[in-house]
Amino acid sequence: MGRWLKATRDADDRPGGSPRASRGGLAQLLRRVTACRTCPTIPTIYGYRKFPPSAAGRRQTRFALVGEAPGIASIENRRQWTGTGGLILRREIRRLGLDLEDLFYLTNAVKCWPAARGRSAANRSPLASEARRCRPFLLAEMEILRPEVIVAVGGVAARALLDRPIRLPDDHGRRFVVAGREVVVLLHPANASRHRRIWPGYRASLLALFAELAGRAGYPIVPVTAAVVERGGRYLVTLRPAGQEHSGTWEFPGGKRAPGESLEGCLRRELAEELGVDARVGELLAVVPWPNAERRLVVHFFRSDLGAALPVPREGQHLAWLTPEEILALALGPADAEMAARLHPRVRARW
Ligand code: SF4
Fold it and tell me: What's the burial of 40, exposed, middle or buried (CB within 10 Å: 0-12/13-18/19+)?
């Protein structure tokens, strides 16, 4: 167990807790937020509606999730991220057996609900002036909590934290270091869900980030990589040889990440060891968790290119180039079956 995790157990029994947050300082700050009436634009219809301090998720944590502003659905539920976009984040993290409150302190760049003028119960995007006025609260929260990683969801949140221009979706997934803290910028899920072209990759990147942070927080997550290699509509699959775990099942080739290895580096190593090829690892296509009793394997499927190289099995495994339909007829692990289904033209059109 790492130094951080050992320390956190003293402060909070769940994985991922931080001993550094000052409960008193944060409570005082949240009382000031509740009382604030600074923005003249906010009270147009419904007044200064905000989340109660109890909706902030975990106080003792290493990670913060910063949204743009509360939406009316979440305010009425008294629970953050329960509007249309927020439920997308919750759906992805639940695939790891967790919820947002298990990993994150939850807050927003603008603390009051920005109500659309003249229309009842409609949200609008927060104004730059509102974000500017509210920014000292956000920076004070981060200073009290001192999270190791801040996930900024949406351009308003990212600009408030980074104080620099951010272009989305281009900057989705970019990481910055500010005052020793890592800030990860994400496109807002409500925007991503409207763009069919980026949607599958967006979902994969969310789950990859949540799995990475859950692993860093000490949850039993085992990262695994697998290669999706296509030639003329056929995909490379291998049969696990006798004597190996899950022998007799077919899979997209790959393996478990070693400590300190990047996901891409892991896949290149596995393909070199198993098939004697020097692969180019491309885009992340899908992330599929595979729970069992003690741990959760999280398989990261990358599009990969072998160039003109001919893969040669080096561990006694069988190898085949098959269509998605043929792959789905084989004995597969659950994650490989889900990936094969997503490659099937009929499923791919819906996904
Ligand atoms: S948005 Fe922030 S600065 Fe503006 S009134 Fe609400 S709490 Fe105050």
Answer: exposed
